[in-house]
Specification:
Elements (H helix, E strand, L loop, with lengths): L1 E7 L4 E8 L4 E13 L3 E14 L4 E5 L3 E5 L7 E12 L4 E8 L10 E8 L2 E9 L4 E5 L4 E5 L3 H5 L17 H4 L1 H8 L3 H21 L8 E3 L6 E3 L12 E7 L2 E6 L2 E3 L8 H9 L6 H74 L1
Antiparallel strand pairs: 1-2, 2-3, 3-4, 4-5, 4-6, 5-7, 6-7, 7-8, 8-9, 9-10, 10-11, 11-12, 13-14, 15-16, 16-17
Helix pairs in contact: 3-4, 5-6
């Protein structure tokens, strides 16, 4: 079961959560999308990492992502491929795996080449070579070579079929439904209609930003320390074969059905009325006990409201810091360009002065 949501529009951040507790893993991640234009090529970079948790082992593996590169925009054949380095690290061991996605050179070479190694400190234990869309082999220290991955016909047949939620069952803010008219215009090759529909969506978004309160993701919450968005209903308990039956999902909330009921991880503290109801069976009916329960109820409500206000304040502070960080980066870029321009002007003036000097001499 999985869920992927865009948790921020400016900057564009998406978060995901994938779980299969019966098999024994949870996968989560927060990705910031950025792009760079180089003239003849364009790179779409996925900044962030994916965390793979093996529930029974208590191990967490952090995986970075490659970038997508499109080249041949102005000169050459238009092509797309992956580039950059992927790094896999564990929180329990010192083993590190690095995989380099090689871009095809301008002359010769092949596409989709990967190479890497598994290391323990500075010692290389295993070499990895191949193509990510073909066969990948591993070679150990003693020279033994084996196939790690090969997309054979049998493997392709095991691919899970793609399932999409019908449009009439999707919410109003889901991407496919929200951008349906834009997608249809692009499919018709109608650039004018696509631009017009896109402008309508963007203007509506700007209007909401001016009048609506700060957007709060429904299923994810920002961790101010790690700057990652965490799924509110994530369950990291190892699978219990004696009690757990299956995982179910409804309205993007993932629950575990067990022999003794359905378990849902609560994203918020237990409410005061629930506490008072649970304790009422064992309490007496005296006036003093009722007063104590009412006092505790008011205290719990106040504490919960205070925690919620604190969380909202932290969210706003983090977003303000992110905006300041973006402005500082833009100022640094402007200053860098100005310094480069001044340097070029000084170099040009110097060359002119030297030319005049040599002519006179």
């Amino acid at each position: 079961m999985c869920g992927v949501f865009q948790v921020s529009h400016h900057p564009p951040i998406s978060s995901l959560f994938v779980t299969n507790r019966r098999v024994g893993f949870n996968i989560s991640g927060t990705i910031l999308a950025k792009s760079k234009y180089y003239g003849n090529s364009l790179s779409a970079m996925m900044l962030g990492s994916i965390r793979i948790v093996l529930l029974a082992r208590g191990e967490t593996y952090t995986v970075t992502l490659p970038y997508a590169n499109c080249k041949g925009i102005m000169i050459g054949t238009l092509s797309m491929e992956y580039g950059g380095q992927v790094k896999i690290e564990s929180n329990r061991t010192a083993y590190v795996c690095t995989i380099d996605f090689k871009l095809k050179p301008f002359l010769g070479g092949v596409m989709n080449v990967v190479c890497g190694a598994i290391k323990l400190g500075k010692e290389t234990l295993t070499q990895i070579n191949g193509t990510w869309d073909g066969e990948i082999t591993v070679t150990t220290q003693n020279g033994k070579k084996s196939v790690l991955w090969a997309p054979t016909k049998e493997v392709i047949k095991q691919r899970l079929p793609r399932y999409e939620i019908p449009l009439d069952a999707q919410g109003e803010w889901e991407s496919k439904k929200l951008w349906l008219k834009v997608s249809e215009a692009i499919a018709r090759d109608d650039q004018t209609a696509a631009t017009a529909e896109k402008s309508i969506l963007e203007e509506a978004q700007r209007a909401r930003a001016k009048t609506s309160p700060h957007h709060k993701p429904r299923f994810f919450r920002l961790d101010p320390l790690s700057k990652n968005y965490e799924y509110l209903y994530a369950d990291y308990r190892p699978w219990d074969n004696n009690n757990d039956v299956k995982q179910v999902e409804f309205d993007f909330i993932i629950r575990t059905k067990s022999k003794h009921g359905t378990f849902t991880r609560s994203p918020a503290p237990i409410r005061a009325n629930r506490l008072s109801r649970d304790r009422s069976d064992d309490s007496d009916s005296t006036v003093a006990s009722r007063r104590r329960r009412r006092s505790k109820r008011r205290t719990l409500f106040c504490e919960e409201d205070h925690l919620q206000q604190l969380q909202d304040t932290l969210d706003r502070s983090v977003q303000a810091l992110q905006r300041i960080e973006g402005r500082v980066e833009s100022l640094e870029n402007v200053l860098g360009k100005r310094i480069l321009l001044i340097f070029l002007l000084v170099t040009l003036l110097q060359s002119l002065v030297l030319t005049l000097f040599f002519k006179r001499s």
